[in-house]
Structures are given as structure tokens and as C-alpha cells.
Design a protein that fits this description.
about 40% strand; about 110 residues; about 20% helix; six-stranded antiparallel beta sheet; alpha+beta; globular
Length: about 110
């Protein structure tokens, strides 16, 4: 009986550790909208993941940050660190041209 209790306690502890360590990726709440020349409709990123780089379909412009995160705009694709165009706070919009965007929690 003691061994059964020990085994049960170990199984419960292991299950608890698995649920504690399995935290989902954090995501911004809201949307980020941008436009591409030649397209009349804007593109929208909904609840984007923190730290993930999002490439645009072509050179984008007129970004609007409706998320609760800081949006970092990059000149080209793949969010190259040396090519930051602008930082957009939540609620901010502008006319900047960019090729990729990353969202950062503060």
C-alpha cells in the first residue's frame, strides 16, 4: 500500500510539473494593419506572437498598431537588426515603408 501511494504521489507530481512548464507563447492582443501599393484592401495581423518576425507580401506602408505591444518595423524581410525603420507604440499609425515587423512585450 505504501508503494502504491508513493507511485500515485509521484505520478501526480509529474503531471503537475508538466502543466506548469507548458506555458503557451505570449501573443499581442489586437491587430496590426498595413497596406501594399496596388492593393485596395489592407492586410491584418491578428493577435501576433511576441518576438516572431512577420514578413509583408511586398513593401508595406501606412502601418497602424492596434495591438497592446510595441511594433518594430524593419526595412527588409526577416527583421534584420540593423535595418529598423520605426517603433510603433500601441495606437500609433504612420506612413513609414517597411518589409517586416516584430512585436515586443514590455
Amino acid at each position: 500500500m505504501k508503494n502504491l501511494r508513493k507511485a500515485l504521489a509521484a505520478a501526480v507530481a509529474a503531471a503537475a510539473l508538466c502543466t506548469v512548464s507548458a506555458t503557451p507563447a505570449q501573443a499581442a492582443r489586437g491587430s496590426f494593419v498595413y497596406y501594399v501599393d496596388g492593393w485596395w484592401q489592407g492586410f491584418e495581423l491578428n493577435d501576433p506572437e511576441d518576438g516572431r518576425c512577420y514578413n509583408t507580401q511586398a513593401e508595406a506602408n501606412r502601418p497602424t498598431n492596434h495591438t497592446d505591444r510595441l511594433a518594430v518595423l524593419y526595412r527588409g524581410a526577416d527583421c534584420q537588426d540593423g535595418a529598423v525603420v520605426a517603433f510603433f507604440e500601441p495606437g500609433q499609425n504612420g506612413v513609414d515603408h517597411f518589409g517586416s515587423v516584430k512585436f515586443l512585450a514590455r
